[in-house]
Amino acid sequence: MKFYKQIKARKEFNDLIEQGNAMLGVLGFTDHSQQHTVLVAERAGKLLKELGYDDHTIDLAMTAGFIHDIGNAINRHDHAHSGAILAYQLLREMRTEIGMSDADIITITGAIGQHDESTGTAIDPVSAALILADKSDVRKNRVRNKKPATFDAHDKVNFAALSTKLSVQKEKKIIQMDLELDDTRCSVMDYFEIFLERMIMCKKAADLLGYRFRLVANGSKIC
């Protein structure tokens, strides 16, 4: 993955990810460190590979996945748009060095700008893969609050998530998210109360890829 490997090694982007994660920590948000960004990048790439996309498209999705949250270094509010602008400026400065075309930069930054459920939606395979990978990263170790009694709704749901997996059923044309919840801490309804908008976003992303989105929670098909 030509671009992904180069961008992953660039100090400029890693500093922004680290600063954004630190800022979110002060505000009480879940972990948005390199652990999250690498997981999103690799999950987006794996998804498109399983769907049969070419290596170039996969590389763009992985690159967008790694840097999709850099806008948090500025402010959590509207971080998708500020992150897209930051990424555009930085990628334009290094495009000759890394061999990235203007079209590639626009695809990557467009995906970043569309990844937040409050304002965005899937517009192409790269943005669709980023959305599905990002919104399926729900897990216990993203919670930084060490006091369960003070958990907000998002902490409660993430802390109860024992595992999540995104898979493709090509014959049935289904992209499936399997979620295992500790139902002593969080019910499936609790999950939907917080993440319904994100699941609708995933459905639209799967639709764009020509697939149906299916959520399975604790072994039961939810949608």
Describe the structure.
This protein is α+β, with helices and mostly antiparallel strands and 223 residues long. It has a single domain (2-221), classed as Hypothetical protein af1432 (Orthogonal Bundle). Helices cover 57% and strands 11% of the residues. The protein has nine helices and four strands; from the N terminus they run H-H-H-H-H-H-H-H-E-E-H-E-E. It has helices at 2-8, 11-27, 34-50, 55-67, 79-98, 102-113, 125-135, 153-160, 188-208, and strands spanning 161-169, 174-181, 212-217, 220-221. Strands 1-2-3-4 form a four-stranded mixed beta sheet. Strand 1 and strand 2 (174-181) form a beta hairpin. It is globular, with a radius of gyration of 17 Å. The relative contact order is 0.12.
Q: What descriptors fit this protein?
A:
11% strand, 9 helices, 223 residues, Hypothetical protein af1432, globular, 4 strands, alpha+beta, 57% helix, four-stranded mixed beta sheet
CATH class: Mainly Alpha
Side by side, the strands of the main sheet go 1-2-3-4
Structural class: alpha+beta
Radius of gyration: 17 Å
Give me the strand/helix succession.
Answer: HHHHHHHHEEHEE
Major beta sheet summary = 4 strands, mixed
Question: What layout of secondary structure does this protein have?
Answer:
Elements: H1 2-8, H2 11-27, H3 34-50, H4 55-67, H5 79-98, H6 102-113, H7 125-135, H8 153-160, E1 161-169, E2 174-181, H9 188-208, E3 212-217, E4 220-221
Parallel strand pairs: 2-3
Antiparallel strand pairs: 1-2, 3-4
Helix pairs in contact: 1-4, 3-4, 3-7, 4-6, 4-7, 5-6, 6-7, 7-9
